[in-house]
Design brief:
about 350 residues, alpha+beta, Butyryl-Coa Dehydrogenase, subunit A, domain 1, Butyryl-CoA Dehydrogenase, subunit A, domain 2, Butyryl-CoA Dehydrogenase, subunit A, domain 3, three-stranded antiparallel beta sheet, about 45% helix, disordered N terminus, AcylCoA_DH/ox_N, oxidoreductase
Length: about 350
Amino acid sequence: MTSSKTENKKNPYPFLDSNYTIDSEDYPRDLMNKIQSSELMVLNVPSEFGGGFGKLEKSNYHILNILKGIGARDLSAGRIFEGHLNAMLLIERYGTQLQKEVYFSEAKSGVLFGIWNSQMPNEPLKLKKSEEKLKLEGSKVFCSGANNVLRPIVTAEHNGQQQMLVLDLKERKFEEDYTYWQPLGMKSSVSCRFNFTGLEITKSQFLGSPNAYFEQPDFSGGAVRFAAVQLGGAEAMIAITLAHLKEMNRTEDLNQISRMAKLALLKETGHLWLENAGLAFDNRYTNPIDCLHKANMFRTITREICEEVMSLCEMSVGLQGFLKPHPMERIHRDLSVYLKQPGPDSTLLNIGQAFIKN
């Protein structure tokens, strides 16, 4: 049985058909430049602001499939672009008419947005009044995309609550501090620390009301995006493994055939779950409980699929897959790190509790 939405059309984004990046751990500039020069930048922007693709602007299956394709090309690029799409969603939901017109126009012209929320307990980002001006004090960590993101959305404490702010870094660059970012994989996401102390903020940069960033179902439901990117990484690993076996003339080996069968099942399972999660996210405002439940299940099953894919591919390729310049070496490290998303245990408990209640 195959997905009812399996696409037979030629890929409109041929740059996503390339092999997984293996020769550099720098920022994925070439791929990101191609993405930023394409209509993907306004993939989930309403058509009234020049975005979307007709009916597809409301199809999260389509959006998640694109994210999967980018993840199959480069997981770091997928992580960065997923943040851009999250920013577009937040602006659509909470932005004023003027903000939407300005920010969506910038995105359409290739300006990269992002969302940076993580911070260390000893240096939280705060918005304070100084000499009748509002200024930031503190830092953010894991700022994926670093100075390549010209319009990051950050959360800052203001009057005891968390306020979203849309920063403008087109004219000002901050020092990229990689003290907290020395990972095994995903190094190309350049997820550095930024100290924003002293940056002046105006009220026009406020996005939404206090604590709006944490409103459901978008906050937790957005996990469907990173899960889609992760699935792309798993599919790339499967393709690399199959290519390796063909090159080594080992496709007749019964053990390898058995592993390929398992990988085929995992790949199809992931795609069917992606379609299911996309539909639930389409209906997130009419059925938020189902959206959250499906998002929790999708991110959990995706992690399990990816972990099993990595294990089977390791068995199929062997030691060669862990030696540079074999393409599996890079993707194995990237996917291992990217799968470490926050709250997996609490997510599993939420799935169980929701299942018991229903």
